[in-house]
UniProtKB/TrEMBL annotation, chains A, B, C:
Pathway(s) the chain acts in: Cofactor biosynthesis; thiamine diphosphate biosynthesis; 4-methyl-5-(2-phosphoethyl)-thiazole from 5-(2-hydroxyethyl)-4-methylthiazole: step 1/1
Protein name as it appears in the record: Hydroxyethylthiazole kinase
EC number: 2.7.1.50
Lipid metabolism keyword on record: no
InterPro entries given in the database record: Hyethyz_kinase (IPR000417), Ribokinase-like (IPR029056)
Broad class of enzyme this protein falls into: transferase
Family stated for the protein in its record: Belongs to the Thz kinase family.
Amino acid sequence: MDLKLLTTLRAQNPIVLNIANFVTVADVANGLNALGASPIMSAEVQEADAMVQIAGTVCINLGTLTELQINQMRVVGKLANQAGKPVVLDPVAVGAIPYRYRVARDLLASLHVDVIRGNAGEIAALAGLDWQAKGIDAGAGHGDLVHIAQTCAQRFDCCVILSGPTDVITDGTRIAQVHNGTPLFQQHVGSGDLLSSLVAAFLATGNDNFEAAQTACLVLAASGELVAQQLTASRPASFAVALIDKLSLVTPAEIETMMKIE
Amino acid sequence: MDLKLLTTLRAQNPIVLNIANFVTVADVANGLNALGASPIMSAEVQEADAMVQIAGTVCINLGTLTELQINQMRVVGKLANQAGKPVVLDPVAVGAIPYRYRVARDLLASLHVDVIRGNAGEIAALAGLDWQAKGIDAGAGHGDLVHIAQTCAQRFDCCVILSGPTDVITDGTRIAQVHNGTPLFQQHVGSGDLLSSLVAAFLATGNDNFEAAQTACLVLAASGELVAQQLTASRPASFAVALIDKLSLVTPAEIETMMKIE
Amino acid sequence: MDLKLLTTLRAQNPIVLNIANFVTVADVANGLNALGASPIMSAEVQEADAMVQIAGTVCINLGTLTELQINQMRVVGKLANQAGKPVVLDPVAVGAIPYRYRVARDLLASLHVDVIRGNAGEIAALAGLDWQAKGIDAGAGHGDLVHIAQTCAQRFDCCVILSGPTDVITDGTRIAQVHNGTPLFQQHVGSGDLLSSLVAAFLATGNDNFEAAQTACLVLAASGELVAQQLTASRPASFAVALIDKLSLVTPAEIETMMKIE
């Protein structure tokens, strides 16, 4: 984990290309912008080439996929691979919907993905391990989260973030855990989508995906924790507004004093 | 009306599948989540079967329909009928746009819909009665709102919610009216869409659609009224944030002391 | 510039039809509603005719275009031209993505557009002048913004708004500049999209597009400036909420005391 990457990111203002979930796309765009990145969204495969050229990194989100969008994901992903631009995959609901699982497996077979970010139900499904996913939620399961994340990372030769109350980050060998956060993340739809796109922004800052992924998790989790301390009750929409504000204000020094990472 | 359904809903955390309006989808997802339901959105007909299987209820919103989406609505609706899962229809702008009216009529001919939720202009159009709808707004008309709602309910053998300053709920025979609310609902785009999806969430809690529909109307209207009392001026965006917060905090006891229902 | 147009707009409550960017569509709808207009969004070409009939004006946004949507834009634009309804074009990212530039040029060749609203990078690209656009952002360039806007306006025989820290408005001959505003507009994704749709709302109030365009720029810039004065730090999401609130509250008298326009 390296909080200097936050300073680098803000100086660099990388363009993050998002093949987005239309439910959460506004939050993702504003979160990226607040953090210090430059979001761009695209829905048309004919502009894929130019979009990948101007982008620093790409985030592919399966949240509201269509056949048309899946084709675009494949083309954008391959172009990003060819250009050496990092790719993040957010496999929304692959643990609950077999069609989405097949789409994710097909994408992972035809592309190299640098980071997969999902909840326990999604990562367990991709790892081929047992879990009870529930819709877009993690669901309930018993199992060693570190083992699940590691199995998934080894299977697809990439970094994996299994996010939740504790975020587990692994490249298959190295393991980090971020214990910061707040239950309000689960109460706001799209916290995971936002994290996936913030990870993409951090991937633009350096060569070590494992470091970048951890730092993204820490910055978001710590920002949320700081914001939640100011709220007198469980207010998920006020939290979402304050969280995006905080992403533009949070400093490495502020995070250092409170981080719980192992 | 039965406020215990709110407690049941929160204990049950039902999955509500939304064929959504992309304008208001984030508010709908966050509102469902805040209330205590689990939202999922889908745009691809190939995942219809699995989506309906995991869902407790379905909400179909015509707000930004396309030919592709209409096909998906038909397939999802039929699968929901076969599986005995309740279906809510939100016929956005059918009073103003003849194409949408035909789409709604076709859907209502090929599916059984459990609850239709619309404004006066939309419900009057489906009832075959005169009204001056205006775009997405109710518009101005003269007519007995109870008669309009009842005619629509009898025509399609379902519950109807004609929402507005007073919400009229009817199954064609029984009638309820919710007088709670605030003019701020009209100032925030998507209040109706949110109500439709909250109704879908309440349908998962029991067998009496008329009771569930009334309770959904009351919970939203009372939450909005409570929130509006805290605002010193007409602030539609602050209202929207506070409303979603309130959906996660509001209790049956709080609503009981203020409800105006007949 | 004529602030009485704000009063006219609120009395008239014009319907603005938006072919929208799905990233920013909720803000645009709520901003139009708060200002006093009535937003409607459409994604299906088969309802184009009825949509244009009920609309006062049309705003076409290229932000998340698809081939299907481009066809719809062409049909809606032509119908609006035939019916004498004003059309606004928001050429998102045409300075950065050659495909979007070709789409914008094709639309401008087959339609008459009344107002083009873009940032410096977008307007320079359409004017055929040099500029370094960056994704959806204006990017960095050297050049006389007034000359760029004027060249674009003369090329397409329309009004042009080149928006940024200073908004330049021109019909090719007359020039106005609005110096109000706040850097927070650049920190919130979709400020430009909102302006484009507010311009469309103001076009419904009279016959002089140049006057209407200026007034829209001033109302938004002044509202943002007033809101920013209340914020103790750079909070882009709180700003967005307060801005939409302010659009429903701001008065001509309030703006008159602070306007910086030449």
